[in-house]
Structure formats: C-alpha cells, structure tokens
Amino acid sequence: MESLPLSTAHVQNHLLIMNRLHMLLHSIAITLVLYYRVSFLFQPSETRESNLLPWLLVFASELILSFIWILDQAFRWRPISRSVFPERLPDDDKLPAIDVFICTADPTKEPTLDVMNTVLSAIALDYPPHKLNVYLSDDGGSSLTLHGVREAWKFAQRWLPFCTKYKLKNRCPKAYFSALEDDDGHFARNYIEDKLKIKEKYEAFKEEIKTFRIDKAFSRDHPSLIEVMQENIIEGADNVKMPLLVYVSREKKPSHHHHFKAGALNVLLRVSSMMSNSPYILVLDCDMFCNDPTSARYAMCFHLDPKISSSLAFVQFPQTFYNISKNDIYDSQLRSLFTLQWQGMDGLEGPVISGTGFYIKRVSLYGNLASKGTDMLQLKESFGSSNEFIRSLSQNYTSDLVSGQKYALLGEPHFLASCNYEIGTKWGQEVGFSYDSVVEDYLTGYILNCNGWTSVFCDPSRPQFLGSATTNLNDVIIQSTRWYSGLFENGTNRYCPLTYGLSRISLPQSLCFAWLTYFPLYCLPLWCLATIPQLCLLNGIPLYPKISDPFFTVFSFTFLSALLKHLFEVHITGGTLQKWINEQRIWMMKSVTCHLYGCLDALLNKIGIREARFFPTNKLEDVEQTVLYQMDKYDFQASNIFVAPMVALITVNISCFIGGVYRVLMMGDCDKMFIQLFITVFIITVNYPIIEGLLIRKDKGRISKLVAIPVTLATLVLLSVFKLLGNV
Ligand SMILES: O=c1ccn([C@@H]2O[C@H](COP(=O)(O)OP(=O)(O)O[C@H]3O[C@H](CO)[C@@H](O)[C@H](O)[C@H]3O)[C@@H](O)[C@H]2O)c(=O)[nH]1
Ligand SMILES: [Mn+2]
Predict the structure, then answer these.
(1) Which of 74, 457, 651, 701 has the CB geometry, 3.0–4.6 Å to 508, for a possible disulfide?
(2) pTM score of the predicted model
(3) Beta-strand pair 98-104/280-285
C-alpha cells in the first residue's frame, strides 16, 4: 500500500473561474480601447479633434498599462493552495539536518536585542536539537553583536528547555513576554512559577545587552571572526541537548566589494559546510523571527515528499509583519504579493525567493554539480581552492567535527570567510546566492527556476515568521527604490524574463517574472495620466470619447473592471474597503516617485554612472512616527525628492480642475471633456491626504511649508506659461 502523502495541493477552482472570466472581459475591453486609439491615427488630420502629441502620450500610457496588466494575469491563471501533514513525517532520528542562516549588518539600525530574539526563536524551532544549527552572520563586525550572541547562548540554555517543557507556540522571547494572552502551557503545574523565573533571566539578558559598552558599532575593515558556542553545563538548568550556534563575521576590506547580503550568505554556506553541512538551509533576515516552531517540519513535508522532492529547490513562507496598522497606509505588508501572487506562481513552477523565511536545499545552490564531475581542477575553478570545502560537496561527507571548536581553531573556516577566497571563482555567478543584483533573492530564485528547479509556497493560517515592516514614508522610499531598481535592472539585462526566461521556463511563469521586473514601469503611465489629460482639459483638447459616443462605455467599463477586480481581491484576502482605497493611494504615490527613481537608478547603474547600493532599512522604532502610523496618517517628513513631485502633481490637478470647470461652464462642452474632468477629480480624491498634509494638518508629519510653497508656486508659474502658449 502506498503511504499517505505528506502534502497535497488544491487548485482554487472558484477563484480560477472568476479570474479567467475577468481576463476575458477585461481583455476585450482593452482591445477596444486600443482599437479606438489606433483608428484615430488613421483619421485624416483635418477631421481630428485633438492634437497628436498628447493623444500619443495617452495612447502610450494605455499600452504600458495593458502590457503590465497582461503580465499580471499569469499570477491569476492557476492559483493553488496547499495542505501539509507533519504528523506523517518519519521519526525524528530519520529527519535531515537543517542549518539556519541569519544575517545582520548594522547594530545601529538593527537593534541587537531584536536580532538575538530572532536567533533565540530559531534555536527553539520544533526540530531535533542535534539536527539544528544556527549561524549568525554579522556584517557589521560589531563587538556588541558578538556579546549579544554569547549572552543569547547562555539564555537559550534555559529558554529552550522551558519552550519544550510547556510546548510553547510562541518561542520568540520578546513576543512571548509581551503577548496579551498566555501560551498553551498555562494549565500545567509549575508553569507560572517557571515563567516568572525565566522572565527574570530574560530581563537580566536584556540588561546585559543594554549596558554593554561598545568601542565601535560598525566596521568595514576587520579580519574574519568565527565563534562556535560551546555546550556547557549551567548550574540549575536541565541539561538539554542544544543546537549548534555559530557567530560569523566575515573579513571586510574597504577595497573589496562584499556583495551585501548575498556575500554574507555565501560565506555562511561555506563556513557551515565545514561544521554541520546540513542538506537544508533556512534563511532569515535578522528582523524576521520564527513565530511558530513548526515551520521546519512543514517544510520537510515538501522536501521529503518523493513526488516533488527531486526538483524542489526551496519552500517559501510568506513574509508577514507584526507591526502593521489596521488599514496599512503604506501597504508594507505587500498584500498582493504574499497572498495572491505567490499562490499563483505556486500553481505554475513555484514562487520566487522572498529573501527570508525559506527552506532551501543546499545542493541547489551549488550549480550544476553533476556536470563538473570529479575533476579537481574544474571543481576548484567553480568553488575556490579549499580542498576541505570540495570534500564537503560529496554526498556522504560528514565533517569529523563534533564540537565545532576544532575547525574554528584550524584555519579553514577563516580561509573560507576571507575576502580573497572568491576571487576567480564562480561564487555569486553559478554558485551560491547571486551577486548580479541588489535583489539577490529574486535573481537567485529566478536562476534556480531557469535551471529546472521548482519551489512551493507554504502559507499556513498561523504566520510561521513575523517581521517588522517599514512604517514611515522615508523607509518605504529607501526600501522600494532599492527593490524597484534591482527588479527593473533584471528586466533589462541578460536575465530578461521575456528572452532568457522564456527559453527556459514556461510562458506563464516567465510572464510572472516579467511582471516582477517591469511593474516599476508604472511610473511612465502614471506620470502621463496625472498631467496630460489635465493640461488638455485646461486648454480644451479632448482626449477621450464623448459621453454620447459608444466608446464611452468601453472606457468606463475598463476603468471600473480594474477597480472592482482589485476591490474583490482585497476583500478575499481579508482587507477592508479602506485598505482598498489605501492601496490605490500608495500605488499612485509610489508610482510617481519610487518607481521612477528605481527605474532611473537602474538605468544609471547600467551606464555605469552609479554603483549598486544596499542601505539596510531602519528597524528602530520612532515613537512619534509610530503614533502617526497607527492613526493612519501619512508621515510627510520624508525626503524632498519624494514630497515635491506629489505636491506638484496635486497642484496641477487642482488648478486644471478649477480651470477646466470654468471652461466647461463657459463653453458648455461637458460631453467632450467629461472623462478628463472625471480623471482629475478621481486623482484629487484618491490623493486627498496630500491636500490634508499641505493645508489642514498641524502635526509633525505635515508637508513642510519650505517644500510646499516653492513647489506650488513654481508649478503655478509653469501652468500659466503653458496656458498662455495654448491660447496662442
Ligand atoms: O550588506 C548587507 C546588507 C543587508 N544585510 C542583511 O540583509 C537583510 C535584509 O535587509 P533589510 O535592510 O531588512 O532589507 P529589506 O528591504 O527589509 O529586505 C528585503 O529585501 C531584500 C532584497 O532587497 C531581501 O534580501 C530581504 O530578504 C527582504 O526582506 C537584513 O537581515 C540585513 O541585516 C546584510 O547581511 N548585509
Ligand atoms: Mn527587512
């Protein structure tokens, strides 16, 4: 008899039917819109009612919007969801080992206590401790982080027994101690007593970190430092088996490009191969802790499933965040990505790596190992000159290391963590995490997919990982600009999903990747549609069909169909009406700023004027900002290059609306100008918070007069000039 499956996948049929029906209707509407535009070009120029240039710009915008829309449909083609049955897994002694990689870069932006909470939550995963190994990469090379790890290790020896004894669900100490309701164990005897005791220890641990005096928080120039935490017997604690905990700070030199997080992960790949060399790896950002201890077993339900395991590279869990406000004004939870879009890709060949919260098979990161055979020279060309490392590649390699200390003292791990190790090798290209992009997660996942690997998306109802999302405009800008620059770059270089991808993966899967790289292009149509119809309204140039024209229905349908589909999707993923409006809003705001800067940054990178950068996002909580965020108020205390375009565009829209209404009243051509009036009103309504920030708000998050006045004046002057020219 065949054994019961470890996991099952179900196509979401209702959603699938809805989606495809909508695709059909919406694509007919889009085709008609484009037909309307094209036929205009064939009209004799004397009978044309409009000028060619604005018409062409609006047409181009509609083409780009349609292009992005088509790509987006691939995510909606075959959405699936999955169930797992961890109780069917083999016994603990038959489970494969797991290495957990956690990255941190800068203790001034990433509070050490939070990083250690992530480390502790990983140590306490529900998995046999001797099969769990946790590595922390510290790119800052900070003595504070090292001190933190040592203290965390001491605390862990009490924390882990406490978690297992009471079978806690919540194993991140910070989250556990601040939780409103108590965890499962509270009926057990001694629980309250034990909890008080462990709480005391936690407070002491916190104090240890808080009072530590650092010489230097951050350094870009330091030798490698590796420390393996030893199991030692603590007085009074039950002697439980502990996972291995290793601190790794790779060598840094100012002259050497260290490739950000991808570089850090590749060092961990090599160093860990000398110690535990586990076949599976969980990657975590330091700001994303394990919220539920079962993820490792859930992931194994896929990795050990004989039906899918051979081609399966990784199991991705969604990124979920604990600090999102009810209406999420910045859409920092990335709702669409982590609910609908990743499920959609899961129904094709699998989701993209999302940076954190994924269990990846170690060999998938070693490129095409089989083709390299056993030729030592060739292997060294790819993997570098460490014989020990190459030995670790063989299937039946077991490191003779028991305590970890041996190799830490011997030179090998240090050699593997040195700047020069990768020079002349294939690390970052064919081997390990990719260096070709600041969105190393996207590119690594994409290349794996192109090489025939698949992935799955696992989204249980209780979030397995919880992180801190960006909750103020400035951080949102920094983060999104980095992402969009990286993503757009991958659509314009040799990895372009529509060329490189299409020849290697299925059509819908390539379209998904293409959407991810091209959606930053929203900046072009959104800039056009926020200015051209408005300026033409002011000068009486019609760009859309009259109300009495049959094509009026086509345009209205397209607009409504897009909005309602979005509303529907927000609704089925648990969002409110307000969330829907907020998503429209932040989409417009980001499109005219972050998307634009991201695309520009990518282009500047391409022609070599700029170098790729990775500023880690700020994870410190600012009380004032948090208060604003929780009240759903935008924090416009952001950099001017972000606020200025929004102020300028809202000024254009309001002025043109006033001028347009006046014109329409004078001329009585409302019929002709209706859609343009409507677009203007729509933009003003959706972006009302900007007006509020300009004119009404008095708090610290309002738009500063120093930006508002000059930008508004300059815009008005330009508008008057334009109007005068239009009248000539
Ligand atoms: O030189 C660096 C820079 C960053 N990091 C670490 O990388 C992680 C992600 O950085 P973060 O500042 O949190 O950026 P986010 O924008 O929040 O990260 C998202 O986007 C990144 C790609 O741009 C992905 O790597 C992340 O997994 C994904 O969560 C953090 O743990 C950092 O400590 C390093 O280790 N070294
Ligand atoms: Mn982050």
Answers:
(1) 74
(2) 0.95
(3) parallel
